[in-house]
Amino acid sequence: MNVFSMMHLKVTTQTLLSWAEIAYAWKFVDVIRKLWDIEKPQFPNYTPGSMGPAASDELLARDGRKWVYRLNH
């Protein structure tokens, strides 16, 4: 086994979750999902294929920043 394979194996095993960890995470997701079923969240949605919601531009503009677009890379 070469060094790259050993590094990949180490990273792969470190990113795996146990079933107990997954079940614990779902406890949070289930609470959020139930809340969303009661009250619809107001997400800044946008048209698929567009550059994103206007709210993202506004958020960055507050700090004098803007997105850098690379359209033809």
List keywords for this structure.
0% strand, 73 residues
Structure class: mainly alpha
Give the rounded overall mean pLDDT. 80
- The biggest beta sheet, please? none
The end-to-end distance, rounded to whole angstroms, is: 36 Å
Strand fraction:
under 5%
Could you name the ranges where pLDDT drops below 50 across 5 or more consecutive residues? none
DSSP summary, beta strand count:
0
* Number of helical regions: 3
Instruction: Note the run of SSEs as H and E.
Output: HHH
Helix content: 55-70%
Name the overall outline: extended
The value of Rg in angstroms is: 20 Å
What does this structure look like?
- The structure is a single chain.
- The chain has 73 residues and is mostly helical.
- It is built from 3 helices and no strands.
- The chain is extended.
Q: In summary, what is this structure?
A:
The chain has 73 residues and is mainly α. Helices cover 56% and strands 0% of the residues.
Map the helices and strands:
Blueprint: H1 3-15, H2 19-38, H3 54-61
